[in-house]
Amino acid sequence: MVGSSLALALAPLGLRTAIVEPVPRAAATQPSFDDRSTALSRSSQRMFEAMGLWDDIVAAATPIFKIHVSDKGRFGLSHIDAAEQGVEALGYVVINRVLGGVLQRALTSVASLDVLCPNRIVAAKLSPERVDVAIEAGDGEHRELSCDLLVAADGANSAVREMLGIAATQTGYGQHAVIGNLLTERPLQNTAYERFAQAGPLALLPVADDRAGFVWTVSEQDVDRVMELDDAEFLRELQEAFGNRLGEFSRVGKRAAYPLILSKAARLTAQRAVLVGNAAHGLHPVAAQGFNLGLRDVAALCDCIADARRHGGESVAAASVDDAAGCSVDCGAASILARYSTWRRGDQKKLVGFTDGLVRLFGDARGPVRALRSVGMLGFDLIPGVRSLFAKHTMGLAGRLPRLSRGVPLS
Ligand SMILES: Cc1cc2nc3c(=O)[nH]c(=O)nc-3n(C[C@H](O)[C@H](O)[C@H](O)COP(=O)(O)OP(=O)(O)OC[C@H]3O[C@@H](n4cnc5c(N)ncnc54)[C@H](O)[C@@H]3O)c2cc1C
Predict the structure, then answer these.
(1) pTM of the entire structure?
(2) Top mutation candidate among 40, 94, 154 for ligand 1, by most atoms within 8 Å of CB
């Protein structure tokens, strides 16, 4: 999702780019464009608007007007309201496979892009002048590519990150997210529900056709049992975890389980190489922010490259044939990568801390912590400005935003 988004975001700059992807998008095993629902934040919405893709995405997306947060078995619940925040929606929910379809169609119209799929990067040799990448095609054929900049957008277990010699810390939460869709007796009416239970959070998101997409966190010890339950038993347990606020649950669809791991890369760059998306940071889905954060990586990298091109523009304009296509910036220049790294570190650190803190705070069953949580949730509702600040982070509007995240096109 992040790599395709980057290729599309860079398109107006006229750079020659290639995507290397081992799994065809339409394959059932595609790990990025799968059956999960993703809540897109407002900054992601603005970004897709600036890229001219939003109309196609919103046609298949469901707006969130309210977020409702509660703590199972405790007094204290909270909510965020789009009208109160002065926005038309707090975010939009889209199925990954559907988003993948929109991105894929758009990729076919980028003339300066090669999509090498099914192909896999198997080695990368870095030098001051360029990166040489060894690629293995699906039929076992090998080829080489040279580029100014190599972007690792290959997910939390990034093989490319390892090839770059960048270490990552990976801490398991001892939990899995079980996802799928179901019907609720009372419709969600564009409200996203987040319920904290001892085993972990349970989210219900409004999706198309009045269905609810669920993300249910279960412990590592329990996941196999939960996945093997028949539909009726599964619905009964999920209902027990969520309560009766939305009436009876029914018609659960196909389920899938994802291990939940916090992963953090030690660095964001190497010589002529950079990490974006989950390759840089893998988050718990509790706050629905991983992809949104990855899109802000994309927007910042595009800004750094576009600015470098603009500043070098005068001297470069008449210098080479490439200029006609606006391609003469050296995308892998150390100054570009240093700016990207400094810019992104803060946002990533804040969000990693925020999501990790939420999981730990709400996963703590000790009495005093639970009481504090209730008070915290009340304070969240009552103290002026706290809810607004939280909403700003959730909508991805906090801090210094790159152009695309503000809805400003690159060209
Ligand atoms: C249950 C769940 C719910 C979530 N909900 C939300 C949400 O509501 N909102 C949100 O913002 N985020 C959400 N997230 C997080 C979000 O899904 C991730 O942040 C996002 O998928 C990261 O995208 P990515 O492109 O960086 O990595 P991935 O999606 O992991 O994609 C990596 C790609 O790299 C390819 N690849 C692998 N190896 C190689 C190689 N050697 N060479 C080339 N390519 C390779 C893979 O085939 C894949 O296509 C959720 C996550 C989970 C688990």
Answers:
(1) 0.91
(2) 154
